[in-house]
Amino acid sequence: MALAASKKLSGKDAYCFFTCFPTDGIGTTSPTNLLTVAGKIQSTIGGIVFPDGTTQTSAAIAAGTNNSMVLGFPDAIRCNVTNPAWGWRTLYIQESPFANAYYYRSLSSTSEYVIFNSDGTFNAVGGYTSHNCNVAVSTLYANGQAFNFAKGPAAQWLQNGTAGYYNAGNVGIGTTAPASQLEVVKNFNGLANTSAGFIGGNDAGYTNSGVYFMQKDASGFGSNTTYLMNASINGSSKVVVTGTGNVGIGTASPGAKLSVSGGQAVGTFVSGSSATIDWNAGNIQATSAAAGTITFVANSMIDGGAYTLALNNATGGSYTFSSTGLTFRCSPACPVTVTAGQHTVAAMIKAGSIVYVSWVQGFQ
């Protein structure tokens, strides 16, 4: 079923035919789509709304001629060069759309270019003699030889060589509001608990410089006092630093500033003939230096540190110990004596500015 209507428009009769279902036609009695128009469609205000929700007020960037319509010059075109047999070439736009559109590429000192008129028709070519780009821009679109590159917002991550970087603010993983340059929320294994690690430099609210290792729970940074650091394997803690400052090796609950479980604390042994001893090289040392003064390098002994020195001078003699800012108290009383052909062992503990020395001679 169809309805027909007529009306005088500018002295001419205009006929409109409508089918009730399923399609409507304007200017045609046999519409093939939901709306078929035989003639022009004009929008004087607002433009046309497309399925993606965008509104277009102009379909052309330049006026066309001879019933042609220019949809816009592409960012690049592909031309199949057949003489000489160079194959497919991609040319990029250099200026568009002034008096013409100019696509250009330089290869092996040969300039290849294609020029189009402002209405999209082909103008000229250079660099080769036979190709398939001497057609209108609309034909290139239809042939799939015209390309446009999607353009998004300015890049947040930038590249310097093989390195990527971000200077515009803080980076958050698992959080949309990172408070430091790098903030990771939730455990790395993705378990949904409220504990998280935080590594950062000097930030607002921190007066000391350096790198901070802090614990965060739902109440904020520093509010979880169980562990500052926990290195574990298969759920078993191997090294921990508690919120109270205790360090545990082989134990998850150290009761002292340093607790070691399951092994021995081993020092490094150094042997030589120098009368100058640097305890930074090892806390167990031996020397065959001649009798006299043995000097310990300043600040190489620390409070609570245990040091052992073996004296093995073949001719024997007496030794005194010296180090800047330290007083040595011996038992038996100093000097320390070595019997010819035998060894003497001195054990030392530093406490403040005093070093306590206990020595035994006669090892043979």
Structure description:
- There is one protein chain.
- With 364 residues, the protein is an all-beta fold.
- The protein has 5 domains: 2-37, no CATH class; 76-147, no CATH class; 171-224, no CATH class; 232-260, no CATH class; 269-363, Jelly Rolls.
- It contains 1 helix and 33 strands.
- A 6-stranded antiparallel beta sheet has the order 11-10-9-8-7-12.
- It is elongated and about 125 Å long.
> N- to C-terminal separation?
126 Å
Count of helices? Answer: 1
Strand content: 35-45%
Gross morphology: elongated
> Could you tell me the mean pLDDT?
76
| CATH class division of the largest domain | Mainly Beta
CATH topology title of the largest domain: Jelly Rolls
Per DSSP E runs of 2 or more residues, the count of β-strands stands at 33
Low-confidence stretches: 60-70, 188-197, 200-204
What's the number of domains?
A: 5
| Helix content class | under 10%
Record the strand order, biggest sheet: 11-10-9-8-7-12
Largest sheet: 6 strands, antiparallel
Counting helices, strands and paired strands, the structural category is mainly beta
Question: What gyration radius follows from the Cα positions, in whole Å?
Answer: 44 Å
